[in-house]
Amino acid sequence: MTGAAGMLGVAVRAELARSNHTVTATGQSGQEGLVPMDIRDWGQVRRCIREQQPEVVLHLAAETDVDRCEQQPDHAFATNALGTENLAWACREQDAILVYISTANVFDGEKPEPYTEYDRTGSINVYGRSKLAGEHAVERAQGRHFILRAGWMVGGWEIDKKFVYKIVQRCRSESQLKVVEDKFGSPTFTVDFARQLMPLVQTGRYGIYHLANQGVASRLEIAREVVQLLGKEQEVEICPVSSAEFPLPAPRPRSEMLRNLKLELIGMNHMPHWKASLRRYIEENRDRA
């Protein structure tokens, strides 16, 4: 497994341990308890895959800082595209299954309905283009593979650097929060994703799948739900604003909404609704809120 120390990696490792899978967790040099492997180094990747001889490689490592990708495109493509290509060819040599975690950001965001696996891709920022290049590299290697697209990731509490935990943190010290109302997506909880991962892999039905929680929401709707679940409605005011009030280096798509259409069609869409998972997430961590 790559990216084992990240917010999704921690959840996946816990789920694999619970289901008695043997896991070799990799990371960059210096990360305690992890086998060193820089995915950008072809020699390291090839050697590690040959030595470990895995049946399945879960590729979670990525540069997910959207603004850093925009400012450092060479870094973005070296990590998300070339790193993924290295793993794809190494897996093909060893006939290992590669599971590549991708993103809703591969779409341009203009579709009014949630994107399905059959929609045309075309990202508007470097991050999305580098992740899409990774998808293409996996497909070119022509090995056994899954490409799983996630939405707005949520999980890990303190190690969660994404939107939900930022709202939790701001609720501790601010009485008024400005939240954009014109960006829409599909929250994807790491624990739910982890639970659905191996059952899908074990089907052997290779290809591209969307794996997000059910339901869609705006950033504003999610923030309001977090405040309510924290019991902060009387203390924290949510103020809707346009994303134009928060200029950022990288453009963001209007929509990152996903529909798990292929999972629906094969009877495997067991992802809970995002509101139910958010409630569980907040309740499980309430003592640390």
What are the salient characteristics of this protein?
10 helices, globular, Rossmann fold, 4-stranded parallel sheet, 16% strand, 289 residues, alpha/beta
Could you walk me through the main structural features you see in this protein, from its secondary elements to its overall organization?
- The chain is an alpha/beta fold.
- It has a single domain, classed as NAD(P)-binding Rossmann-like Domain (Rossmann fold, 3-Layer(aba) Sandwich).
- It is 40% helix and 16% strand.
- It has 10 helices and 13 strands.
- The strands form 5 sheets. Strands 3-4-5-10 form a 4-stranded parallel β-sheet.
- Strand 4, helix 5 and strand 5 form a beta-alpha-beta unit.
- Helix 4 packs parallel to helix 5 and helix 6 packs across helix 8.
- The longest helix has 22 residues.
- The two termini are 30 Å apart.
